[in-house]
Amino acid sequence: MHSLKRTVASVVALAATAGLSAGPAAGEPIQLGQLTSLTGTNAVVGQDMERGMQLAVQRVNNGYEVPMDGGETRKLGPGLLDGRQVEVIVENTESRPASAMDAVRKLVNVDDVPVVIGEFSSGISVPTGQFTNRNQTVQISVGSTSPKLAEIGPYMFNAIGLDNIMGAELAQFAMQDSGVKKFASITPNNPFGVGLELNACKTVKQAGGACTRTVRYELNKSDYRPEIKQLFRGDTKAGFFTAYGTEARLILRQMYESGKEMPKGWYADYMTMWSNEVKEIPQVAEGIKGLVVGVDSNFYDTEYAEAYEREFGEAPLTAFGGYAYDAAMMAMLAIDQAGSTKPKQIAEALHEVADDYRGVTGDKAVNENGMQKSESYQRKIFKDGKLRDYTVSGS
């Protein structure tokens, strides 16, 4: 397994590249863990999440005025708890649950981190979250959206809205835009994909419609033509599309090559999961509509996107780096609030700081289960190789 550790020295070096003083380090560093996919299906998202967390930690190590909901700021750093630098131990999950379990065992049992940030896939965050919760270690998942996360326990938190929110929003958008109430659905056969399918189809059913074709595919296959063939049986005119980057590229390419189209189009959740992966073959995704998580505002740009581009030389790769940034900021605010690196105190403080923190991805308040109370979505269409704003005609 590839493992990458951010040492105090490397954090100081990163700060120096930005022309900032890292400030003095006092005492032993505070180590946080990160689970992210640096290789495999979700590598682009995983790299973006690593960068988002890196930016948050760098800022706190240098000293930062963190924006809060009321318009005020809260000073963190330099460092935490009397100047202790924050160090990140990054573990590559390889986009696989088995590798992720090896990684989280190392972070908890060997590195003894009080907080784990990640992961992106619900198929990874559910089992790793169950492990961290049993071992009384805080985990804040970043891009995972399965409702099963809410059942894990008091040490599990989430930085993004769950699929019951996204599924309902996507279905309502699709019905309003397409004018139909019968849909096909294609999703990965894991907690994330199944949760989205169930929630979107439930919303359609409540409106008097139905999902007439539901295809659940396995990850890491080299051919999805049999699954595609199933989708186009019957006369369904619109569909829900869910896929991670690598699978999306292959499924959309094979769908395009087959010449098959949904007359009323495809509606996709979390479009930035795959929009970068198809940029070299944009025709395969042309016209897909859907939702992007997070906010599009001056605050997001000035607080996060512009700093990200200065540090890494390009715009944010996906929507999910911002969620990793928010998760890391909430963890560090909670450590500061608790005055401790003990997981129990951090978990208790997280409920309070989540209410007060102004996230770059929107409101971060959590419910009694540590899950987001709300989520922000933007309606988009993939057109001419880019995600563009989309407004339903007549709305």
TrEMBL record:
Sequence similarity: Belongs to the leucine-binding protein family.
Domain Leucine-binding protein: 29-374
Key words, A-Z: Amino-acid transport, Signal, Transport
Pfam families xrefs: Peripla_BP_6
Coiled-coil boundaries: none
Signal peptide: 1-21
InterPro entries in the cross-refs: BCAA_transport, Leu-bd, Peripla_BP_I
Species of provenance: Rhodovibrio sodomensis
Cross-referenced PANTHER family: LEUCINE-SPECIFIC-BINDING PROTEIN, PERIPLASMIC BINDING PROTEIN OF ABC TRANSPORTER FOR NATURAL AMINO ACIDS
Protein name (record): Leucine-binding protein domain-containing protein
